[in-house]
Specification:
Elements lengths: L2 H29 L4 H8 L1 H20 L1 H10 L3 H13 L2 H17 L4 H20 L1 H12 L10 H18 L8 H10 L3 H27 L11 H5 L5 H16 L4 H17 L9 H18 L3 H10 L2 H12 L4 H9 L6 H13 L11 H8 L10 H20 L1
Length: about 425
């Protein structure tokens, strides 16, 4: 263990503590107006890991020199933060949201239940499962924007909001396991272990679908008394011109291109530049793009990449030394304090790991993907889009953990039994 590795582990621990204390900083910003700006900055969950990543880079510069610090920062892979930012902005554009809402509304009216109840169930079950096709970050973005006015609003009990948030995060984490490319922790091992989409459906996908349905049904039942008919569109929204089918098709093509090129940042960022140009050319069919929210999420994930790169020295020995069942529960727990994709990547480096251990590692990693903000890459996107619906416009780490416990147990049982 080198000195800088120890420093990196300490800073990573401080960043974890900071995520749990973020809501406290928001409270302090209201109590001390003179320093409200600083406290509000420290209370932004999306800022936490980027903030501590800069401290780590400064520490490397002090201990090993500026050249070493720059080399370390440039040696990290930032494809995932860039992809999540890009797919968030494209998926949240008005034409994509409009066609999704229309489709789900048609389906909701076919079911023998209240429309708002059906829409909430779709947002917590069907949309997370589509993450296996459009990737988990895109599914999280669509589900969050769809559920925000129905569940994450004034008048909904706070504990139910956390319950719904926990279900959403867990269901998105396991809902991407029907294919081999949509869930980041699966993608990290699929090529090395030769897992294709057929393998994922038969070993993970159907179990995940069962758990998703159970979780969504349970929390929708709990929400039923507090749901109300969706509000009518505002006068401004009603006056906006209808989106032509051709514009919707072009937006869907942009989304598909970004998803297909998700491992090639030069290409999908080029597609994104074209997308921005198209939205400017046809601005009358657009709502404001969520550039700020997407950038904050990208900043969070980039910080996690920088800090996480220093944790391999203590994580990998744990992963290597455990038998299959213990590996499952350890992966589930470790996912709460480190990104689940980083955890499975470490597993892919182990030579001669058994097929049972491979399954247990990935199953535990995806089952625990809803426990904290950092557990799964799409979670910061959900936090960014939904936190305004919570008290003090901040999502508490303890509340999220409590809300995610029950659906995590359901997912764990589905994968184990």
């Amino acid at each position: 263990m080198q000195t800088i590795q120890l420093v990196g582990a300490i800073l990573f621990g401080l960043a974890l503590l900071h995520t749990f204390a973020a809501k406290s900083f928001e409270i302090l910003s209201h109590r001390h107006p003179r320093h409200a700006g600083l406290f509000h900055l420290l209370g932004e969950v999306e800022v936490v890991f980027g903030f501590w990543a800069f401290i780590l880079i400064a520490a490397i510069a002090l201990l090993s020199g500026g050249e070493a610090a720059v080399h370390y920062a440039e040696s990290r892979q930032y494809t995932e933060p860039l992809f999540v930012f890009t797919v968030m902005v494209v998926a949240a554009s008005r034409p994509v949201l409009d066609i999704m809402e229309r489709l789900l509304l048609v389906l909701a009216k076919l079911l023998p239940m209240r429309v708002e109840l059906a829409l909430v169930w779709f947002g917590l079950a069907l949309v997370p499962l589509t993450g296996s096709l459009i990737t988990e970050p895109a599914a999280m973005t669509l589900a969050a924007l769809m559920l925000a006015p129905l569940v994450f609003r004034d008048g909904m009990p706070e504990w139910l909001k956390y319950g719904a948030l926990g279900v959403l995060f867990v269901n998105v984490s396991i809902g991407g396991t029907l294919t081999a490319y949509a869930a980041p922790p699966v993608l990290m091992v699929a090529g090395t272990w030769q897992w294709d989409s057929a393998f994922m459906v038969t070993h993970f996908g159907w179990k995940a679908a069962v758990a998703v349905a159970i979780n969504a049904t349970a929390v929708t039942f709990m929400l039923r008394k507090h749901l109300r008919t969706p509000a009518a569109p505002s006068a401004e929204a009603a006056a906006a011109p209808a989106v032509p089918l051709a514009v919707t098709a072009i937006h869907l093509a942009f989304l598909a291109a970004v998803v297909l090129l998700g491992h090639h940042p030069v290409l999908f960022l080029g597609i994104f530049m074209l997308f921005l140009g198209f939205t400017q050319a046809y601005q009358r069919y657009q709502n404001p793009l969520i550039i700020k929210e997407g950038l904050l999420v990208g900043f969070f994930l980039a910080g996690l990449v920088v800090l996480g790169g220093m944790q391999q020295w203590w994580l990998q020995p744990i992963v290597e030394s455990l038998p299959p069942t213990a590996l499952f529960f350890s992966a589930l727990g470790l996912t709460a304090i480190t990104d689940n994709a980083a955890l499975t990547y470490l597993g892919s480096l182990i030579q001669g790991i058994s097929a049972q251990s491979q399954y247990m590692l990935v199953a535990g990693a995806v089952a625990g993907g809803g426990l904290t903000v950092i557990a799964n890459a799409p979670n910061p996107a959900g936090v960014s889009l939904l936190r305004r619906g919570f008290q003090d416009e901040s999502i508490g780490a303890i509340g999220l953990l409590a809300g995610a416990l029950a659906p995590t147990i359901v997912a764990a049982l589905a994968f184990l039994l």
